[in-house]
């Protein structure tokens, strides 16, 4: 099979296209013929060494993707959609494994291969499936971090005001769509009119351009009683703003460190409003959280509530497998939208 591999940490140039044996699924694993692979910041950060290390002499990158089940190992339960020929979306594929999605085949634990709903058809299903994984799972956990909703679905966030920072990013896009599907009023911050248009396409009710507006004043005007939950990508930059707009008992769910690695907390105004800080990382989440996220995301897919493409606020950028270096570089330089690798020729 064709696979992208690297054997040392470093820039994208350490990756190369190689021929490798097709891996065999072990106990509890399935083998997937990959059609699309998604590229996330965690992929290039792992490659340069600033994310969790792999411990394998050679690695094929890629946590996310979508494809078709090609083989089933011993001990895989008889779950609908996980038989030979089943279409699946994948998450945390390369976590704890040398086999990522930037290859024609990968093997992974069966729990991380989630059947695509029958409502999705054609290549668009694989495009959308490869956009999930890290972004949608992260968004789900952020939205269920508060005390008012452990699962997402129609009505579960009704009456809540959710603030999504960075609404034009992949996680922000998923958070907007999932929160809107669940009944929340969704506010988002963006840095340009173009990104605001993408956030609106995703389903945000209100968009605040923090470069041209007083963000705290604008958010307080839109949500006089404060916001109930914040999906936070830049806590070092936004913590003062979050404190200014948070309602009593609000949750600030932090999933990244964009803009700085540390921030200070003004203790009295924080504890006096009973605020919750929830930090989250998919790789160390309890399996129950991952399972819940996979189930709710699949339900949102079946309902048409999770979409991809510019009309959904998430422009798609396709690269062939042999151009995986360009795909990684695009994500590293902050390309707006979702970068995909077309693995199946």
From TrEMBL:
Domain (Enoyl reductase (ER)) spans 10-341
Reply yes or no: does the keyword NADP apply.
yes
GO MF terms, alphabetically ordered: mRNA 3'-UTR binding; NADPH binding; quinone reductase (NADPH) activity
Q: Which Gene3D superfamilies match?
A: Medium-chain alcohol dehydrogenases, catalytic domain, NAD(P)-binding Rossmann-like Domain
What transmembrane ranges does the database entry give?
none
Alphabetically sorted, this entry's keywords are: NADP, Oxidoreductase
Q: Which GO terms describe its cellular component?
A: cytosol
| This protein's name | NADPH2:quinone reductase
